[in-house]
Amino acid sequence: MAAAPAAAGSGVGRGRRAAATVAAWGGWGGRPRPGNILLQLRQGQLTGRGLVRAVQFTETFLTERDKQSKWSGIPQLLLKLYATSHLHSDFIECQNILKAMAFVTEERKLTQETTYPNTYIFDLFGGVDTEGVTKRLAEKNDFVIFLFTLMTSKKTFLQTATLIEDILGVKKALLVIAQAEDAQEMIRLDEVPNLSSLVSNFDQQQLANFCRILAVTISEMDTGNDDKHTLLAKNAQQKKSLSLGPSAAEINQAALLSIPGFVERLCKLATRKVSESTGTASFLQELEEWYTWLDNALVLDALMRVANEESEHNQGTRDGSPERSVQSRFEGQKHVSSQAVIEPSLLVAVSASIVLPPPGASEENGLPHTSPRTQLPQSMKIMHEIMYKLEVLYVLCVLLMGRQRNQVHRMIAEFKLIPGLNNLFDKLIWRKHSASALVLHGHNQNCDCSPDITLKIQFLRLLQSFSDHHENKYLLLNNQELNELSAISLKANIPEVEAVLNTDRSLVCDGKRGLLTRLLQVMKKEPAESSFRFWQARAVESFLRGTTSYADQMFLLKRGLLEHILYCIVDSECKSRDVLQSYFDLLGELMKFNVDAFKRFNKYINTDAKVFLKQINSSLVDSNMLVRCVTLSLDRFENQVDMKVAEVLSECRLLAYISQVPTQMSFLFRLINIIHVQTLTQENVSCLNTSLVILMLARRKERLPLYLRLLQRMEHSKKYPGFLLNNFHNLLRFWQQHYLHKDKDSTCLENSSCISFSYWKETVSILLNPDRQSPSALVSYIEEPYMDIDRDFTE
């Protein structure tokens, strides 16, 4: 028997030919049938009746072949599934087989010991080639646009939303793989017919799931390639984008913001309260079982639909005739699911939530027998709301970082998103019973996979985007806390922050504590190994970023933030570099120019100064922002005549350490040496700016030539003359290209350092002066044989 070639694009030709060859002699599961086994398998895929073909192999053969191909028992499970999926078969047994398949899938994802992916195995034994189909559909923008029109019907909404989300996800992945830089290839929402009417007619449940689609369409492409994340590559892409016009993501964001009431509805959905029952002891074990299955909100929607219909059913009708029974409605759900691309776990999840009445159960007054278990568990209603809020918060976060940021800020302030989230903080976002012990099957307690954990992280990311360099950050406080800021300014005899005075008190948080204070409370209780620490520190740091505010710093200092940070850095034995970097950055913003903060710091760290300084020096990339803030503070303190300042200067070991020229030169040498133009990213460009701060302050004291001469000597001591200064020269050339055309970045530099941007530019120009006779020019300290200052950045 000759093996027919695999269909074009299937990507599994070799495996299928092998299967066909074995099938020629391996038996047909009983009586032989005419025709090529491969053709029959393919026919099964095209007709959707693939499981019929799976039984053509004997279980013995599948078991033996499994040992070689590492199929993890999936073909055998498919065989059993077919045998138990007839009309009168044992439904519980079918459910157990599906569970086993799900567990196998999770284990395979973790071990990655198999030769073939799950989709290939399922496809090989007669399943639908979902990957190939989705790729082909992703190439047809007109088809995707058409699918949006099917979302007008509630009956087809869930299945259509699932399909659109999958297609767009594949489409975005294909663009990344192809390194397609033109984001216009993503669909444009402004091409969807009657988009405004379509979205406006969504109910809140539909709108939340529509956000899953928006998450793909309004976010810029992320290549996942480190080389593409360099500032050099980003600048080149931005230049290209200017010639091409707005990206598809930007166009889609603008299209959404033009829909009347869109942002308001998102804010209402994000802040909608959930009624929780008081009994939560049994909920934990129940929820862990659900976690094993629920990997998308659409499954939960199906569950909610069953629960809603059950509620309507229990009410009955006026004429006394019963509606369809729970079983018949479930059968209807199975029918719908079989017609769309929905995971088998959907059926399991729906069935697991409902215990069907036993056959022959009595019905009184025309109403079927019901039990408490026919109702959707309260825990699932809570989880349903969590999944909704995840999607909505992500969309709001993306919009906050887009071109229309100020417009979005104004709207979410007006619609009271922040006070609403504050009211949900204890009951839903950071509820006590959402312990980290609840983990997905096959994962550990440190995974960021569960909906509870993901909601917390998305919430913190939203706070970071909301507070960063925006005066609306004071909406995170309540009226009493705003009064406290005013009192701090009054006591220090300094002017009140203008943004505090301009804050609309009707839009701030209510209750005993504002959102920022609540965040600080949970932050101080977080375990040392918690992944939340990074995001919490970033969210609080964003509140401090921008023009330094003494009142803001003292507000946080009074709540023990500095001691908490130092404990985490020195005493908690934290090993995560990301967490350490975020805490160093936060510490720098908290202490900058603040004498009281340095006094508190010195009191805590006095006996552990060596440990702290070792942490700073162990990773300068992580700690350089703190070094910059301390260097700037030292410069300001040295120019002040004040007894309190003089006392701090004489006692603080950190200030004394930073003030030494050898220390500054060591930092400067290392900061320049660990970065290059080709490796500059948004994360490490701070090293370049910190080195510039050190040299700008040296220039103020007319010591710039001294520092350059010392760098030259350090080069020679390392036996590599010219390598450091040539690199620094190239870095400064790039700095000019990068910052002179970026208003936002230059403003951030000016606000954070309290050094005018004109002084930054002047210092860079002086250092890049081509005159070798200039004592402040880099070229004056690079010997002619080692000169290499005109290299193309792309080399």
Automatic annotation (TrEMBL):
Lineage from the top down? Eukaryota, Metazoa, Chordata, Craniata, Vertebrata
Pfam families referenced in this protein's UniProt entry, alphabetically: DUF3689 (PF12463)
Q: Where is this region: Disordered?
A: 310-330
Composition bias (Basic and acidic residues) maps to: 310-322
Entry's Gene Ontology molecular function annotations: phosphatase binding
* GO CC, alphabetical: Cul4A-RING E3 ubiquitin ligase complex
Q: Name one GO biological process term.
A: ubiquitin-dependent protein catabolic process
Parts forming coiled coils: none
Q: What is this protein called?
A: Transient receptor potential cation channel subfamily C member 4 associated protein
**InterPro entries named among the record's database cross-references:** TRPC4AP
Domain of life where this protein originates: Eukaryota
